[in-house]
């Protein structure tokens, strides 16, 4: 399971992307579907792994606080989401 997505789900998304490619007259495909599905699936998996790493950084920030915040509590979830979004914001500033 990758960030809540099964391999079947990721493959399904990859196939939908390929269908959109075929439906777009401006896109030319020079490889077989299997190779393209695999490449898209690997890209999606890498992206999901990256987001998992950011989520883990956010969890570590919450755990490093002096105040003991119970995992799964509303405060925990709010702080993890806050720190996760801060990590995303940092990346957006780098690429702007």
Structure in words:
The chain is mainly alpha-helical and 96 residues long. It has one domain. The chain contains three helices and no strands. It has helices spanning 7-23, 33-63, 74-95. The two termini are 32 Å apart.
Strand and helix order: HHH
The portion of residues forming beta strands comes to: under 5%
As a whole number of angstroms, the C-alpha radius of gyration is 18 Å
Question: What would you call the structural class?
Answer: mainly alpha
Helix content: over 70%
Q: Sheet with the most strands? A: none
Average pLDDT confidence is 90
Uncertain regions: pLDDT < 50 for 5+ in a row?
A: none
Provide a count of the helices. Answer: 3
Q: How far is the N terminus from the C terminus?
A: 32 Å
What is this entry, summarized?
The protein has 96 residues and is mostly helical.
Give the arrangement of secondary structure elements.
Blueprint: H1 7-23, H2 33-63, H3 74-95
Helix pairs in contact: 1-2, 2-3
